[in-house]
Specification:
This protein has one domain: 3-Layer(aba) Sandwich (Rossmann fold), CATH 3.40.50.720. Helix content is 47%, strand content 16%. It has ten helices and nine strands.
Length: 254
């Protein structure tokens, strides 16, 4: 880990969590608060985070505040960041929307929301954060994507294509900012037991809890990782899926 990265990771610098109402966002808040970081928890309907703010403040003794943030309102992103008062040392984007593939195939209104929530909105806000961290010469950007972006599958190709674009965005930012003292981490989880996946029949052996993902993200940030699969077995699963010849792959029901 570089000296600039180490500086950006000091607990006096706040951690900004975009999508803080999500299960993984809430787990991340507790992991970073437990390490002594002040927190900025950003989400739509930020008032729903009041109980989390109170609990984390009492439990960990760190400064926590909830801020209103709409990832789809890209015109407001600059004003949102200006309103924070200080640039975070670490910015983590866990914004995501799985949506319903079958419904989105028939309604481009629904498809548009999936694509903008998973790619365009995060790309805009992280791009602005990247510009500011680059000017400062330090910081860490962590984008939580999905293994669904590694290859398009019939069951979720709209969501997967947005996550593929998000991974390419983070790769480009990492390449651009590598000489500016700014760390960029791409996180690719597999199945997670969250409200978004509730009701789905997920294999227990491959399904992580939000707390496990949060700890993995923190470890990746500390370790100076570039791309991390959570759980690690997903790296090999997705490698196999990517290597399946197209003539075979298109006959599979994935």
């Amino acid at each position: 880990m570089t000296a600039a990265t180490a500086t950006a990771a000091m607990p006096q610098d706040p951690v900004l969590i975009l999508g803080a109402l999500s299960d993984v966002g809430r787990a991340l808040a507790r992991v970073y608060a437990g390490a002594g970081y002040p927190l900025m928890l950003a989400a739509r309907r930020a008032e729903r985070l009041e109980a989390d703010v109170t609990d984390i403040t009492l439990r960990y003794g760190v400064v926590v505040r909830a801020v209103e943030f709409d990832v789809l309102d890209t015109a407001a992103h600059v004003g949102f960041l200006d309103g924070l008062g200080s640039l975070p040392g670490i910015a983590i984007c866990v914004v995501g929307l799985l949506g319903q593939q079958s419904a989105a195939e028939k309604s481009w209104t629904q498809a548009d929301v999936i694509l903008r929530t998973n790619y365009l909105g995060p790309a805009c806000v992280l791009g602005e954060i990247a510009n500011r961290m680059e000017a400062r010469g330090s910081g860490c950007i962590i984008g939580v994507g999905s293994v669904a972006g590694d290859r398009g599958r019939a069951s979720n190709y709209l969501y997967g294509s947005a996550k593929a674009g998000f991974a390419a965005l983070l790769s480009g930012l990492r390449n651009r900012l590598s000489r500016s003292g700014v760390q960029v981490v791409t996180v690719k989880p597999g199945f997670i037991d969250t409200a978004m996946t509730r009701g789905m029949k997920l294999p227990k052996a491959l399904t992580a809890q939000p707390e496990e993902i949060a700890l993995g993200i923190r470890a990746a940030q500390i370790g100076g990782r570039d791309v991390v699969y959570l759980r690690p077995i997903w790296r090999w699963i997705m490698l196999i899926i990517r290597l399946i010849p197209e003539r075979v792959f298109k006959r599979l029901k994935l």
